[in-house]
Amino acid sequence: MTSDAKTLVIEKRVRAPIEKVFEAWTTASQLIAWWGPDDVVCIGATIDLRVGGHYRIGNQLADGQVIWISGTYEDITPPNRLVFSWSIDQGAPSTERVTVNLQSSGDGTATQITVTHERIPDIKARERHAVGWTGCLDGLEVWANRTGKG
C-alpha cells in the first residue's frame, strides 16, 4: 500500500484468471458475492457497464446503517482496466476517482490487482478507504478461491 493525503494505492495478487477477475468487478451478481470488508454486507448492486454508465453498490454496516456508493464509468478496457467516479450518497457529490488495473500473470493463473483511489478529501477518509479496499480485495480473493480458478 502506498499513499499520500489525496491518493491511496492498494495491491493484491489473486489466483484467478484476469477474465474472471474483470467479470467479478463488472457483473452485479458476482460483485455482491465478494464486495466489502468482513463487517459489511453488500445488499445490492447495479452496473451499467459502458462509458458514461452508472453503478450503485449498497453496503450494510455492522451497526445496521446502509450507505450507497455510486458513480459513473469513465474508462472500460476489458479485461485490464476500469476507471469510475466514486461518491458515497451522504451529501455533496464527490470528485473522487477509482482506477482498477488488472495484470495477468505469465501463465494466466493469477491476476495482479491495483486499486488507485484518487482525490480523497482528507486523511481520515483515506484511512477508511484503505480499510475498505483491503477488505474488498481480501473478499475477492476468498470468492475467487471458493468459485474455482477458471
Number of strands: 8
- What is the average per-residue confidence, as pLDDT, rounded to a whole number? 93
The helix-strand sequence is EEHHEEEEEEH
The biggest beta sheet is recorded as: 8 strands, antiparallel
Summarize the amount of helix as a percent range: 25-40%
SSE order and pairing:
Layout: E1 2-3, E2 8-14, H1 18-26, H2 28-34, E3 41-47, E4 54-60, E5 66-77, E6 81-88, E7 96-104, E8 111-118, H3 123-147
Antiparallel strand pairs: 1-2, 2-8, 3-4, 4-5, 5-6, 6-7, 7-8
Helix pairs in contact: 1-2
List keywords for this structure.
150 residues; 8-stranded antiparallel sheet; ASHA1/2-like_C; globular; single chain; alpha+beta; 40% strand; 3 helices; Alpha-D-Glucose-1,6-Bisphosphate, Chain A, domain 4; 27% helix; Activator of HSP90 ATPase; START-like_dom_sf; 8 strands
Explain what the structure shows:
This is Activator of HSP90 ATPase. InterPro entries: ASHA1/2-like_C, START-like_dom_sf. It comes from Algimonas ampicilliniresistens. By secondary structure, the protein is of the alpha+beta class. It has a single domain, classed as Alpha-D-Glucose-1,6-Bisphosphate, Chain A, domain 4 (2-Layer Sandwich). Helices cover 27% and strands 40% of the residues. It has 3 helices and 8 strands. A hairpin with a 6-residue loop joins strand 7 and strand 8. The two termini are 28 Å apart. The model has no long low-confidence stretch (mean pLDDT 93).
Summary of the model, kept short:
By secondary structure, the chain is α+β, with helices and mostly antiparallel strands. 27% of the residues lie in helices and 40% in strands.
